[in-house]
Amino acid sequence: MSTKTINELLAGSVGGAAQVLVGQPLDTIKTRAQIAPRPMDILSQTLRKEGFFALYKGMASPLLGIAGVNSLLFASYGISRRIISPYPHLSLKEIALAGAMAGAANAILASPVEMFKVRMQGQYGAATDKRLRTVAREMWSQWGLRKGVMRGYWVTVAREIPAYAGIRIFQAPFGAKYGTNIPVWAILASGSTGGIAYWLSCYPLDVVKSRIQLRATPPTGTPVQYIFREIKMILAESGSAGLFRGLSPSRDIPAAASTFAAFELTREYLEKVTGV
Fold first, then answer.
1. Cβ proximity of 190 and 95 under 8 Å
2. Fewer CB atoms inside 10 A, N or C side of the chain?
3. Which tens digits make up the pLDDT trace of 166-181?
4. 214, 116 in Cβ contact below 8 A?
């Protein structure tokens, strides 16, 4: 493994920690809005019934796993760029392709991390609420790897490919203008626009994923069949608005800004230290 890839893995870990700490409260609200049987004031009810720290419910799973997820994502993107072209400047199509390849690789870790997070966030402070280790043990013992731990994997793949292609397309103008010396404000701006692109390109699939991962039993049929079956159920229950439920409190504007800022600043520091 090259020093450059190791730098990207380490910087991705720091970016992942920043993502969780900044974005977890809004992510909890988003997930609960997606799985709620009917629209309601999720934030006020959560604070009133469970207290402020309920907004960080399910944080253990992403905090433990997001380092690996983001390390894999950023390193995969760097490797994908080098596979596509040996030259540092890629066309917009090549940047999108590298982002899509990184998104597909990222789903391998992102799917189980998000599955456990969603199941923790779907608990509302009752005496019967379970700890993360209990949820993990039950999913493994009852359903195994494919139908339990990796439940929702193919939906995650379908979400990540367009999402990360969109992120990189929106960020490309900043890289073209500033090169490797991107100022902090531009990193934050590119991360924010990337976060917007992420959800605009894939949000309905994220709603589908949350519902599938929270359900008591795994989906049946092929991935295409159960994804479209879930979409039909959402449309029947809530109309087209149901596919975008929870979009307004989406975490990915502040979270993506902090993620990419932490990643880029850490990567620049490691480049100076290692000379690579």
1. no
2. N
3. 888 877 887 777 766 7
4. no
What is the 3-class SS of the chain, one letter each residue?
A: CCHHHHHHHHHHHHHHHHHHHHHHHHHHHHHHHHHCCCCCCHHHHHHHHHCHHHHHCCCHHHHHHHHHHHHHHHHHHHHHHHHHCCCCCCCHHHHHHHHHHHHHHHHHHHHHHHHHHHHHHCCCCCCCCCCHHHHHHHHHHHHCHHHHHCCCHHHHHHHHHHHHHHHHHHHHHHHHHHCCCCCHHHHHHHHHHHHHHHHHHHHHHHHHHHHHHHCCCCCCCCHHHHHHHHHHHHHHHHCHHHHHCCCCCCCHHHHHHHHHHHHHHHHHHHHHHHCC
Provide the pLDDT for residue 197. 76
Which pLDDT does position 39 carry in this prediction?
46
Task: Give the separation between CA 205 and CA 158, rounded to whole angstroms.
Answer: 7
Tokens 């999913």 correspond to what residue? 139
pLDDT of residue 36: 67
Q: How far is CA 269 from the centre of its chain?
A: 25
Give the chain's end-to-end CA distance (angstroms, integer): 13
218, 237 in Cβ contact below 8 A? no
Six token digits for residue 61: 């799973």
pLDDT at 193: 78
pLDDT greater than 80 at residue 247: no
The amino acid that residue 101 corresponds to is M
Residue type, 84: I
216-241: per-residue pLDDT in tens? 999 999 999 999 999 999 999 989 98
pLDDT number for residue 8? 85
From CA 51, how far away is CA 65, in angstroms rounded?
25
